[in-house]
Specification:
The protein has 840 residues and is an alpha+beta fold. Helix content is 52%, strand content 15%. It has 30 helices and 25 strands. A hairpin with a 2-residue loop joins strand 1 and strand 2 (121-125). Helix 23 (599-635) packs antiparallel against helix 24 (645-666).
């Protein structure tokens, strides 16, 4: 594994290996600029939010056209056309800033912590308080927060995969360099800070990566394709408008007005509305105890159909309790004393050792001659004592990992082991020898079990199920998410606990030894069909996650330990516990703030709700945009234009802006469709778009030509241009009123409240979008009723019978649309079915 060359831009000021720096020395170095101060951000910065919301390419074009309209004296055109866009932008800007402030406050709780030695005593501090030359303490699962050099002699294993991309751990010894951003996997020790702040290796990598890398979610990528298509259409339209203006001698002010309408075809608020929906969703999830560390975690949650989880810390609490001990070939009192001394001598205690220390307090600890730290890879730990009554070598670990190396198999203990395992207890084997021995550490394989050990005792520890775990698992089932329990414990123990948690009484289970010889195809079948996996290694967890992903599943992984890191990174969504290791939190997209497994079902449903709401929004946008595009394409060869800039803004406001707010707020959870959005989007949007454009074109041309002929009849001396100028405002008003009415009727088709409106999508039973449509129809009536508002949106008063006719044609449009969907034509062409449109 390659490491960077030492950077000499910061002088390495050594600390006292024994006592570290004093507080006064640390303060002096902080004042000298030698502190580990780096920017702390979550998501986009405030300048980025303002830039992306206000000064994006589309808004810049509209601003330029607005300035041009002002120069040409078309002040109201500029104010209305740009003002509607800016109103939506301002609302999105305020909401996203509020969401960011909330998330920034919450995210501080998940930052890694550092243990420094100050004035001879260790204390936990924020990484920003570390200074050059500080002596830091490293425990199993801790993150290395600054670059440094080990001062402790005991070997430890470090995971540098986040820095190098290599999955193998590196064994570090005294005076070796450790890099910020790596994690201590096994063992522990101390190190001196040599490079801090922006000079550390992790921060240099982060700075380079952040300078050029922006990761888009699948939905964002697909929407980007749609927007690029619209950009191409707009570019073609603009070229045709320029040619038309030159050939037809169209006044420059009219050319700018037409360009404003064309540029508005690009849904500048669409990507921003998705980002805003994700930000608001993140705030809601934070209120439920789930912190999103990656923006795309909202969308990722909506697609999850398999949840892989460890047992400890998820199904069970993070607390182990000593339950019982069965001595083998020794007096129980003596074995208890040896086990207590063993627990007291371990330098890096885990939950098992802490449980033994609590239940079996030891006499003054015996000096340790050698130690083999526990690892989930080899599943045991060992100590060697060189003197006193406890002189000898002892190991504690999984019976399966030690039974081949430990003599005297104690067959009389088999019944007890099976009974404890069936009851869901965690069973360990304690073995020893009176001869002190050294543990041979192989860098690739780990330590070897010393020879001539004999079994001393079976030790039973009890996990506690989390409160309400049965209800939580039932909620997962209702959300359509399958559960896989993947643990390092005995598969029978895990199966018993899974059954107690409510996953079923007859669960298929496999052990890591059974998985090991399987090829990829067999492993994939096993991953699909099996619920419980026990005695698996971290690499096997990763293989199982990859196998499920290869079978077409969208996989989430819940973990809390270093042994879960590789699987968390491999999963589509990594979920960590706040009380888990820093390594697990760092690589996860979500963190359960209160270590509450029960928070996840609500988070999954919220993700589904956001994803389904955005599909509703896309449908509304696409129908409006492509209808306008078809009308513009049909009218370009003719004199005049189907819309004026201001009445086009009214269509955007009532037909898309207000409905989008409601659809986003009222969306419901439900399993979203997998894969591309294009086919279901086309299935829903194509019929209303074509029918609306065809009827809208017929309305526009019939009104225009009828009024032109009538005008020329009444004014024989008038020319064609005068007739067009008289007829065009009526045709534009008729067209825009019809399009707005159709857009409002589209709302109950998008969210059907009754079977009358079902066809494009399944029945929802939600009346709120329908009531919104009626309210917006009343708002349209109000705009048409008053001269001021008509003038504001460049509308012309029509007789009542004309409005009634337009309303009747809207009903005809709705009936035709219902008929097209009922005929199955779109399903036949696209090979889809009604339920493919969106989740019900």
């Amino acid at each position: 594994m390659t490491e960077p060359q030492n950077d000499t831009s910061q002088p390495a000021v050594a600390a006292s290996p024994a006592g570290g720096l004093t507080e006064a020395e640390a303060a002096a170095r902080r004042a000298a600029g030698q502190a580990n101060v780096v920017p702390f951000t979550t998501g986009r910065t405030y300048p980025q939010i303002v830039r992306d919301n206000v000064f994006n390419v589309i808004n810049d074009l509209l601003f330029a056209l607005g300035v041009t309209l002002i120069v040409l004296g078309r002040y109201l055109d500029a104010v209305v056309a740009v003002g509607v866009v800016m109103a939506n932008t301002f609302v999105g800007l305020v909401q996203e800033v509020r969401a960011k402030r909330t998330l920034d406050r919450i995210a501080i709780l998940t930052r890694p912590r550092a243990t420094v030695v100050r004035d001879g005593a260790p204390r936990e501090v924020d990484p920003a308080e570390v200074v050059l030359g500080d002596l830091l303490v490293l425990h199993t699962g801790d993150q290395v927060v600054v670059d440094g050099r080990l001062t402790s002699a005991a070997p430890l294993e470090v995971d540098e995969s986040l820095l190098t991309g290599e999955s193998d751990v590196a064994v570090k010894h005294g005076d070796d360099e450790v890099l910020s951003g790596s994690f201590c996997v096994t063992g522990g020790g101390t190190y001196v800070a040599e490079r801090v702040g922006a000079e550390s290796f992790a921060n240099r990598i982060t700075a380079r990566a952040q300078a050029h890398r922006r990761v888009l979610t699948p939905l964002q990528r697909q929407v980007s394709v749609i927007i690029r298509l619209l950009l191409a259409i707009v570019l073609v339209f603009e070229i045709l408008v320029v040619v038309k203006s030159i050939v037809g001698h169209v006044p420059f002010v009219e050319t700018v007005r037409m360009s404003t309408v064309i540029v508005a075809l690009i849904p500048n608020g669409l990507i921003l509305s998705i980002a805003l929906a994700y930000a608001l969703g993140a705030v809601r999830m934070a209120g439920k105890g789930v912190l999103l560390q990656q923006a795309n975690a909202v969308e990722a949650l909506s697609n999850v159909d398999v949840l892989c989880t460890d047992k400890t810390g998820t199904l069970t609490t993070n607390v182990l309790r000593f339950d019982d001990l069965m001595a083998l070939d020794e007096e129980e009192a003596g074995v208890r004393q040896l086990l207590a001394l063993f627990a007291a001598g371990v330098s890096q205690p885990n939950r098992t050792i802490e449980a033994l220390r609590t239940a079996l307090p030891a006499a003054p600890p015996v000096p340790v001659a050698d130690e083999a730290p526990f690892s989930s890879k080899w599943k045991w730990s060992g100590l060697s004592f060189a003197g006193g009554a406890a002189s000898g070598t002892y190991v504690l670990g999984a019976p399966e990992a030690l039974v081949e190396s430990v003599g005297g198999r104690a067959p009389q203990a088999r019944a007890r082991l099976d009974a404890w395992t069936a009851a869901g207890l965690r069973v360990l084997l304690f073995a020893g020898s009176a001869e002190p021995a050294s543990f041979t550490m192989d860098e690739g394989e780990g330590p070897e079990v010393p020879p001539h050990l004999r079994p001393l005792a079976l030790v039973a520890l009890r996990d506690e199920l989390r409160p309400n775990v049965q209800e939580t698992l039932r909620d997962f089932g209702e959300a359509g998410i399958a559960i896989k329990v993947i643990s390092g414990d005995n598969p029978d123990t895990v199966t018993a606990l899974a059954a107690q948690a409510g996953l079923g009484s007859d669960l298929a289970h496999l052990s890591g030894t059974e998985l090991e010889p399987m090829d990829e195809a067999a492993l994939a079948r096993a991953a699909e069909e099996t619920v419980v996996f026990g005695r698996v290694t971290p690499d096997q967890k990763e293989r199982l996650t990859a196998a499920l992903h290869g079978r077409g599943h969208y996989v989430a992984m819940v973990g809390d330990g270093v042994n879960d890191v590789v699987a968390l990174k491999r999963a589509d969504v990594g979920i960590a516990m706040q009380a888990g290791s820093q390594a697990a939190r760092a690589v996860s997209g979500l963190i359960l703030m209160k270590d509450s497994f029960a928070a996840l079902p609500a988070a999954f449903r919220d993700g589904q709700r956001i994803r389904n709401g955005m599909q509703d929004v896309l449908e509304i946008f696409m129908v409006r945009i492509f209808t306008k595009a078809l009308l513009i394409a049909a009218m370009l060869p003719l004199e005049g234009f189907p819309f004026a800039p201001r009445n086009s803004s009214l269509l955007s406001l009532l037909g898309a802006g207000a409905p989008v707010v409601g659809l986003t707020a009222w969306s419901r959870p439900g399993k979203p469709l997998k894969g591309s959005i294009y086919r279901p989007l086309v299935r829903f949007a194509l019929p209303p778009t074509v029918l609306m454009a065809a009827l809208g074109l017929a309305i526009h041309l019939s009104v225009r030509f009828t009024l032109e002929d009538r005008y020329l009849t009444r004014h024989p001396g008038a020319g064609d241009e005068a007739a067009l100028n008289h007829a065009l405002p009526y045709a534009q008003t008729s067209t825009i009123v019809f399009l707005i009415l159709c857009s409002l009727l589209l709302l109950p088709f998008t969210v059907p409240p009754t079977r009358l409106f079902a066809g494009g999508v399944p029945l929802r039973g939600d009346w709120r979008p329908t009531w919104l449509a009626l309210g917006l129809a009343a708002a349209l009536a109000g705009v048409l009723a008053f001269p001021f508002t008509r003038h504001l949106f460049e509308l012309t008063a029509l007789p009542l019978w004309a409005y009634a006719t337009l309303a009747g044609l809207t009903v005809v449009w709705g009936l035709l649309l219902k008929g097209v969907w009922a005929s199955g034509l779109m399903d036949w062409v696209l090979k889809t079915k009604p339920s493919d449109a969106k989740a019900s």
